[in-house]
């Protein structure tokens, strides 16, 4: 992670959006997920940011398996391993929004998310995801989730160089008239 003490357009614009109560795609303060080591089920924090608002932001419990139907082929699939796609599909079931998954973009390499909550991919703009702020290099069904993971973030990206940011506060609790330090960070995959 890099401390964004050297202001740049991304840090400044995302920080302002976050500080006025929007998360686009800046992480907000969240309650830590309890230790899962002795738990039968895996809980993970899922956050989904469209280009205009937060679609979902809560903990989900990943099931033993989850079924979905590919929207292009009509074939029903079952995921049995915890993955970034399973987390997204479980969030959709919990909240009641629709996820469109396609099985023809990368035959043999996994599934492709076409749409979340009615927001469709358009040209080079579309849905991306990260696990613990690391941009994934595989399809979401092939990115395994385990007890070491804390968060899956999906966001609607409008640029290849769009950075996933997080806002870190110096204090977890702030009383009225107290101050805190807010730091905007991003993961620099090049370093």
Task: Report on the architecture of this protein.
This protein is mainly beta. Helix content is 12%, strand content 34%. The strands form 4 sheets. The chain has a 5-stranded mixed β-sheet, covered by helices on one side. Strands 1-14-13-2 form a 4-stranded mixed β-sheet. It has a 3-stranded antiparallel β-sheet with strand order 7-8-9, with helices on one face. A hairpin with a 4-residue loop joins β3 (42-49) and β4 (54-62). The longest helix has 12 residues, at 84-95. The radius of gyration is 17 Å and the shape is globular. 30% of the residues are buried. The model is unreliable at 22-39 (pLDDT under 50).
Sum up the overall morphology in one term.
Answer: globular
CA radius of gyration is 17 Å
Q: Main sheet, how many strands, which sense, barrel?
A: 5 strands, mixed
Fraction of residues in helix: 10-25%
